[in-house]
Structures are given as structure tokens and as C-alpha cells.
Write a structure and sequence with these properties.
With 196 residues, this protein is an alpha+beta fold. The protein is built from 3 helices and 9 strands, in the order E-E-E-E-H-H-H-E-E-E-E-E. Strand 7 and strand 8 form a beta hairpin.
């Protein structure tokens, strides 16, 4: 059984702490070639069967009502924010109003997404029953430091569709000292590609 390990240099410069509620060290980079944080660990997201990544250097720093926040303003932080959002969307016990207000930008698609969430919460529209899924991969489509577009690959791990994979593209913007989802204009999020 192979084990992947990371070693940190013995001497490190003291980081400059960025102003804001999350207080991550400033890491002005847009390099997505080395984004896996050295301390990443995978944990089952509360209320789901999906594992989500956690890191002391990329986030989340805060968990409130099982909703994560405070990610680093780096490619790693954006990736972990998107991955944790995927897991949180699968948690039927979460306060979806709080999830939307905490993790979604107030752009054109916000109202449509909020209406969809209100319909789920009121029971007028049922949330689709999702198969058990795990994050199987990712790809950066764009990263600037204020904006990221990340494709997350999900793999079904049970049921008659076990092994089937799909990708979802998530646009994230840096807003209020954190990465937040920029919803499509219609408030939806449809898989962009199905892999067989």
C-alpha cells in the first residue's frame, strides 16, 4: 500500500497576516500547479456520506452549523471551498437559507437560487435524491486571485449507477474575505459533462 507524504522545510519565513476576519497569511499566488496543501485531510462532512477536504493552511477555519467558511485566498483555498460546498449541498439537514447567505455571492443568479432553496425548504419542490457520491478529481479552468472556475468530478459509489461520473463547474468569487459561489443566472447547477 503506497502512502503519499509531504515534508515541510525546517526553516520557514514568518508569514504576513492579511487583514480580515479569516486572518490567513498573505499568499499572493495564482499558480495552480502545486495546490494540494501539505496538511490536507479528508473527513466525512456532517450529515452526509461524502468526504470533504480540510486544511489548516487553506481552510476552512470556521464551521458554524456544519457550514464551512474562511478559506485562504489561494488556489488551494478556492479548491477546498468548492469541494466543501459540494459536500454541504448534499446535506439535507443543513439550514439551506444559512448556506446560501453564507456561501453565495449576491449576483444575478442569487434570487433564482434563493427561490429554488425556498421551494426545497417549504416542501413545494423536492430536492433530488442523490446517490452516494465522492469527489474523484478536479480541474482548474481559471484562477486570478479574485475569481476561480473549478470543475469537480463526482463518482457514484453505490447503487445501480455505481462508478458513473459527472463533472460540475463552480465559479467562485472572492467576496467578504472568503470564496463564494457565483450562481448561474437561472440559479441552477447542471452537470456539464457525463463521463462513462
Amino acid at each position: 500500500e503506497a502512502v503519499l507524504t509531504y515534508s515541510l522545510p525546517a526553516q520557514q519565513e514568518q508569514p504576513v497576516v492579511a487583514a480580515g476576519r479569516c486572518n490567513y497569511p498573505e499568499q499572493p499566488t495564482t499558480d495552480v500547479s502545486a495546490i494540494v496543501p501539505p496538511d490536507v485531510r479528508w473527513e466525512l462532512a456532517p450529515g452526509t456520506t461524502m468526504a470533504a477536504p480540510r486544511s489548516g493552511v487553506a481552510g476552512p477555519l470556521t464551521v458554524d452549523g456544519n457550514i464551512t467558511s474562511c478559506y485562504a485566498r489561494t488556489p488551494s483555498g478556492a479548491l477546498l471551498a468548492a469541494s466543501n460546498l459540494v459536500a454541504e449541498l448534499g446535506n439535507s439537514t443543513l439550514d439551506m437559507d444559512q448556506l446560501v447567505s453564507t456561501k453565495v455571492t449576491h449576483t444575478t443568479g442569487y434570487d433564482a437560487l434563493n427561490q429554488r432553496v425556498q421551494a426545497w425548504e417549504s416542501g413545494t419542490t423536492s430536492r433530488a435524491v442523490q446517490p452516494v457520491q465522492q469527489i474523484a478529481g478536479y480541474r482548474f479552468l481559471q484562477f486570478t486571485g479574485d475569481w476561480a472556475v473549478i470543475e469537480i468530478v463526482l463518482r457514484n459509489t453505490s447503487g445501480e449507477m455505481a462508478g458513473a461520473m459527472a463533472t460540475l463547474s463552480y465559479a467562485l468569487a472572492w467576496e467578504d474575505d472568503d470564496w463564494k459561489l457565483v450562481p448561474p443566472v437561472d440559479g441552477g447547477n447542471v452537470p456539464s459533462l457525463r463521463l462513462e
